[in-house]
């Protein structure tokens, strides 16, 4: 009953979207000014895709608002005319979130790139949606502060909130969900809200529903995030990176599990399997390492704390068959190590220039990690696809990057099927199909299996309440 009531109006909404007409484009020009709107083919192509392999169509027009008022005006106009709008951060997403399915307006937020308000003494900062991860950290370093959530790519911070991003540091500092205190969001009808109340930035609040976390991970389907107030941290006194290589995948994964279970406050613990190491060595010149399952680690804190952690962690890796525990204080080596990790995705792509990639993103409770990584490897080997595995194993989160031939329809379908099998494997082990990249277009079909149809119906009800004409990023996240 509940499902029927919700799915019928959603279907109706899908049928009655309007196209972006020349009249709409001139209204947008009139509202925003000539310089803030583009219909050029190359600009539209850039906004029709992210870093995944998904390519469907391109937006009819791209708008570049400079203020929250601009965002609100565009949404009002598009809502009135029932025209889809897709927010665009920096296009580094990996789930097809910015790819249009129909005639639409792409809303590029990069011109709103101001750091609005820094409170050094309270460890928080408010940024506009175009501010990126590298931009904020460059700005903060003179104050001895940092924002730790690090997806590797130089993504926009509000795009990161929209996808509930994390990355290598989440094992210590948490994800976007635990690091955003407040957001300004413009709803489909142009209404501007502040999820925790205007200007509020207390560390805790029990004031009603948690609207901040409601909007995190909504992938542009419930509102456009026009500012975010973020938690900051002091730059650690000292950082030490380390590497340990193993004869078996099991040894590396068991070491990770024991590090976490022993409460070691590790800052990063990243796994790369043999194949990943082969590709990274080639791409990033990691000459001193071999092609074996490997852990990249980072410890932070005082010298004494780091020494204690290194001692404990090296005992753990040794007891699991790990080789030499190599650690370094040299900034040069540390930079090379983490650049190699951040370029992992591109190292894999570079290995097969004619292929495209499907990046899986499952996360499971840490006690299940060894079994799930092993079973994922079996699924991939059986399928015959090349699929190196690497990831943020301290959070039980890993990626298999499946490489397929985009010109072979049967192979594309088989690749989707393998990715789906890996997601289902994670669900059987109480995990999720996406630890950090989001649902986008890729994982819509498995969402009901993960959260249950009743929960999907609640999501649809929320969508209906906040965006009754369904103009915000239609066809994403919810099937
Ligand atoms: C090499 C590499 C490596 C990684 C990753 C990418 C790449 C290329 N990513 C994925 C990516 O960096 C991550 O999804 C970012 O959060 C996307 O931010 P963008 O600003 O690029 O959003 P992008 O423009 O790609 O948009 C993503 C989604 O958010 C919506 N959106 C964007 N801005 C919005 C706004 N202001 N308001 C509302 N909706 C908005 C869009 O509509 C879309 O649905 C990742 N991620 C991760 O979590 N961990 C990782 O380890 C990595 N690693
Ligand atoms: C692609 C990605 O998420 C990673 O390299 O961690
Ligand atoms: Mn990742």
Properties at a glance:
binds pyruvic acid; flavoprotein; transit peptide; 5-stranded antiparallel β-sheet; Alpha-Beta Plaits; mitochondrion; 479 residues; 38% helix; alpha+beta; flavin adenine dinucleotide binding; 4 domains; binds dihydroflavine-adenine dinucleotide; Uridine Diphospho-n-acetylenolpyruvylglucosamine Reductase, domain 2; globular
The largest beta-sheet arranges its strands as 15-12-14-13-17-18-16
Taking all Cα atoms into account, the compactness measure Rg is 23 Å
**Ligands present:** dihydroflavine-adenine dinucleotide, pyruvic acid, manganese (II) ion
- For this structure, the CATH topology of the largest domain is Uridine Diphospho-n-acetylenolpyruvylglucosamine Reductase, domain 2
Subcellular location: Mitochondrion
Subunit structure: Interacts with CSRP3.
Family: Belongs to the FAD-binding oxidoreductase/transferase type 4 family.
Organism: Helobdella robusta (Californian leech)
What does this structure look like?
The protein is of the alpha+beta class. The chain folds into 4 domains: 2-110 and 453-466, Uridine Diphospho-n-acetylenolpyruvylglucosamine Reductase, domain 2, CATH 3.30.43; 115-234, Uridine Diphospho-n-acetylenolpyruvylglucosamine Reductase, domain 3 (2-Layer Sandwich), CATH 3.30.465.10; 238-345, Alpha-Beta Plaits (2-Layer Sandwich), CATH 3.30.70.2190; 353-438, Alpha-Beta Plaits (2-Layer Sandwich). The chain is built from 17 helices and 18 strands. A 7-stranded antiparallel β-sheet has the order 15-12-14-13-17-18-16, with helices on both faces. Strand 8 (180-186) and strand 9 form a beta hairpin. Helix 10 (274-284) crosses helix 12 (331-342). The longest helix is centred in the C-terminal third of the chain and has 20 residues, at 409-428. The radius of gyration is 23 Å and the shape is globular. The relative contact order is 0.13. Mean pLDDT is 95; it is low at 1-13. The structure holds dihydroflavine-adenine dinucleotide, pyruvic acid and manganese (II) ion. Pyruvic acid (PYR) is lined by residues 152, 344-345, 359, 391, 399.
């Amino acid at each position: 009953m509940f499902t029927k009531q919700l799915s019928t109006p959603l279907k109706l909404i899908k049928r009655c979207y309007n196209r972006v007409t020349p009249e709409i484009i001139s209204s947008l020009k009139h509202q925003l000014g000539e310089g803030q709107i583009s219909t050029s083919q190359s600009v539209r192509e850039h906004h029709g895709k992210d870093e995944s392999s998904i390519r469907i169509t391109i937006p009819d027009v791209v708008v570049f608002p400079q203020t929250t008022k601009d965002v609100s005006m565009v949404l009002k106009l598009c809502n009135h005319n029932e025209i889809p709008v897709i927010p665009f951060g920096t296009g580094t997403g990996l789930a097809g979130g910015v790819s249009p399915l129909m005639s639409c307006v792409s809303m590029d937020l990069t011109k709103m790139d101001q750091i609005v308000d820094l409170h050094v003494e309270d460890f928080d900062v408010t940024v506009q949606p175009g501010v990126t991860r590298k931009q904020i950290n460059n700005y903060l370093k003179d104050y001895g502060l940092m924002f730790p959530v690090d997806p590797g790519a130089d993504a926009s911070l509000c795009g990161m909130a929209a996808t509930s991003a994390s990355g290598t540091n989440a094992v210590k500092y948490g994800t976007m969900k635990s690091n955003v205190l407040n957001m300004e969001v413009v709803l489909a009808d142009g209404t501007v809200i502040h999820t925790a109340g205007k200007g509020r930035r207390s560390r805790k609040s029990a004031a009603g529903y948690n609207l901040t976390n409601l909007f995190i991970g909504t992938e542009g389907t419930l509102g456009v995030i026009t500012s975010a107030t973020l938690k900051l941290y002091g730059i650690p006194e000292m950082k030490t990176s380390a590497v340990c290589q193993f004869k078996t995948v099991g040894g590396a994964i068991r070491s990770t599990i024991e590090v976490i279970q022993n409460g070691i406050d590790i800052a990063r613990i990243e796994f790369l399997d043999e194949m990943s190491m082969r590709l990274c060595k080639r791409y990033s010149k990691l000459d001193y390492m071999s092609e074996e399952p490997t852990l990249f680690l980072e410890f932070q804190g005082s010298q004494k704390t780091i020494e204690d952690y290194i001692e404990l962690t090296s005992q753990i890796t040794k007891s699991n068959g790990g080789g030499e525990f190599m650690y370094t204080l040299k900034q040069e080596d540390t930079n090379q190590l983490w650049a190699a990790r951040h370029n992992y995705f591109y190292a894999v792509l570079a290995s097969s220039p004619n292929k495209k990639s499907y990046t899986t993103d499952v996360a499971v409770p840490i006690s299940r990690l060894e079994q799930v990584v092993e079973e994922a490897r079996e699924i991939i080997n059986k399928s015959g696809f090349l699929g190196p595995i690497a990831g943020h194993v301290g959070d039980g989160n890993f990626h298999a990057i499946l490489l397929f031939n985009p010109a072979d329809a049967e192979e594309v379908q088989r690749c989707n099927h393998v990715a789906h099998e890996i997601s289902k494997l994670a669900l059987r082990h109480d995990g999720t199909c996406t630890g950090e990249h989001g649902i986008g277009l890729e994982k819509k079909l498995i969402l009901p299996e993960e959260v249950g149809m009743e929960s999907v119906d609640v999501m649809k009800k929320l969508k209906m309440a906040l965006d009754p004409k369904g103009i915000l990023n239609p066809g994403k996240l919810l099937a």
